[in-house]
Here is the input.
Amino acid sequence: MCLGIPAKVIAIVDADAGLALADTAGVRRQINIGLLAADGGDPSVLVGQWVLLHVGFAMAVIDQQEADRTLALLAQMEEGGES
Here is the structure.
């Protein structure tokens, strides 16, 4: 099973290397956006977008609703399923 975590792209760190800064629940980290910007397009279009992050790689662009649902589910799992 793979776990993808929503992250919001905050800034492009190194466009040539495909690196960006992303935020997940207040934690900022450098991520690889190479899989999303592989077509040679402008990676700056990802700034402000939500992406599905797996082991440091942005796998897909997702919408705000999907990000919110997934973050809520992860928070619920962290609390042991208690509501």
